[in-house]
Amino acid sequence: MKNVFRFLVFGGLALAAGAVAAESKQSKSPAKKVWNFDNLDGWKLYSQDSNPNQQCSIEKGCLKIFTRAGSDDRKKASTVEQVYTTGRYKWRTYVPKMGVGDQASVGSWIYCDDQHEIDFEVGYGKKEVRDKLGAKPGDLVAYMTTQAHPFSSVPVLVKPGWHTFEIDLSNKDGKYHVQWLIDGKVRHSLTQTFGPEFAFHIYCSVENLKFLGDRPASQDNYGLFDKVEYTYHD
Fold this sequence. Notes:
The protein has 234 residues and is mostly beta strands. It is built from 2 helices and 15 strands. It folds into 2 domains: 1-30; 31-232, Jelly Rolls (Sandwich), CATH 2.60.120. It starts with a helix and ends with a strand.
């Protein structure tokens, strides 16, 4: 009888704890967050390279990030909190004209870990990719990528200038269904093999990445981020 009582008590406590944990996890995703970049409150900066300089600043209400010509600079800003799940992620991002063949990327993306990452990466693009897309001088290539589960990377052409990049995550039978939107138009969609059990940081970045071009960057490249928004939905 004691064992039955002990099972009922501790089993009940475990169920209650599980319910609290589930409620806590659900409550972590805010209904809406907007960052206008008058400051960096709620964001952190770091470098994924050998250069200790952050190269990130607030200028005229925008987050500016830049990389140096010929370097391996990878400069990033992310939300402090890793609590974002289903919902609409939106960046208003300025991508400038880049050097021909430059291995440089302006990124608007979300990240849990190296296997659970969903991106927009915009740069000049390799010649073979540009040729396949029919790129004209001045066009840039925007990659819409998931790093794994499954891996997918789809390139489309965009012009330099201001763009609204959006990643929409909906819950499809417990898995994330991803839509990538550029300036309000759906450009790609894919269902992941994982779902809201994985929460994300939100990122802005400028990185000198080899897959975005045919040669080391010939000039300093930069990106401007005017606003980032997150709106929860299930």
